[in-house]
Design goal:
Blueprint lengths: L1 H5 L4 E6 L15 E2 L6 E10 L1 H5 L6 E8 L11 E7 L13 H12 L7 E3 L7 H9 L3 E3 L5 H9 L7 E7 H14 L2 E6 L4 H9 L8 E2 H4 L4 E7 L10 E3 L2 E10 L2 E10 L4
Parallel strand pairs: 1-3, 6-7, 6-8
Antiparallel strand pairs: 1-2, 3-4, 4-11, 5-8, 5-9, 9-10, 11-13, 12-13, 13-14
Helix pairs in contact: 5-6
């Protein structure tokens, strides 16, 4: 991905990447890419979403990136984690991260015209979410708990025919900003706030002036034109894994831009065609 971005027209700035979060040496916050010829643009990137799934041969791993106008993507600075609420367009005005999870369930159910017992909520299966998952189930909602993959789960909320109605809980900041570009393009609703997972992370954020309790609206996360792209790596409901046919390798990607969702199958041959 870094090699491909190096040849992109213009000058791209990695506003948020996995470099700091995963102690990776590239695609880190502030890194510049592109050939310098053309307009400037922002990048949010997770080159391999669901890394453990890929390593374990499980479905769900994706290569993901979002690109926006220069200055349009929110930068979390040293923030690595954020609390998120994501809903479909019909419930975009029904969420408030300052309210209780149960209150948000009630509001979303009302906006969708369905009982809470008919809602499917996605919460990552992490120790920090034990109480949240129990509260959602006690309220009557059906809760799906994947071990990772909140970007794909959010797309299942946003896309027609998706299995999810609501995503809640804490995940990575790169995933959050990328999700925001898809939410904006598809008219969904999203709120987020930083959720430091250690005293040192909280202190670092405070030292550089971040308000960790500030609720970020969708327009705070992405303020200009943008698009989101994901390519299937290990397969799953959303996208196929790469496959071979007639001497070629094929990949399936999804491109989400303003009011548009496109699926693209790309073919590459061993001789470079």
């Amino acid at each position: 991905m870094r090699a491909a971005l190096a040849n992109a027209a213009g000058t791209g700035t990695v506003v948020i990447g996995e470099g700091e979060k995963d102690s990776a040496p590239m695609l880190y916050n502030g890194e510049r890419v592109g050939n310098g010829l053309g307009q400037a643009f922002d990048i949010a990137v997770d080159p391999l979403e669901c890394t453990d799934n890929c390593a374990d041969g499980l479905p769900g791993a994706l290569a993901t990136i979002a690109v926006g106008e220069a200055g349009s993507l929110w930068s979390p600075g040293p923030g690595l984690s954020m609390d998120k609420l994501v809903v479909a367009p019909a419930a975009s005005e029904a969420i408030d991260l300052r309210e209780s999870p149960e209150s948000n369930l009630e509001s979303v159910a009302g906006a969708l015209g369905r009982p809470i017992s008919d809602l499917r909520v996605v919460v990552l299966d992490k120790p920090r979410h034990g109480e949240l998952i129990e509260r959602m189930r006690s309220a009557g909602a059906s809760v799906s708990t994947p071990s990772a993959g909140d970007v794909a789960a959010s797309l299942e909320v946003l896309l027609p025919g998706g299995e999810n109605d609501l995503l809640m809980g804490i995940g990575g900041t790169p995933e959050g900003v990328m999700t925001a570009t898809a939410v904006q393009a598809l008219g969904g609703g999203m709120q987020a706030r930083l959720a430091p997972q250690s005293d040192s992370e909280r202190a670092t954020l405070a030292a550089v002036g971040f308000e960790v309790d500030r609720v970020l609206a969708l327009e705070d996360l992405v303020s200009g034109d943008s698009f989101f792209v994901a390519c299937g790596v290990s397969g799953g409901r959303l996208l196929r894994r790469p496959w071979r046919s007639d001497g070629a390798t094929l990949t399936e990607s999804i491109v989400v831009s303003k009011g548009s969702v496109r699926r693209i199958v790309e073919t590459s041959f061993e001789d470079g065609q």
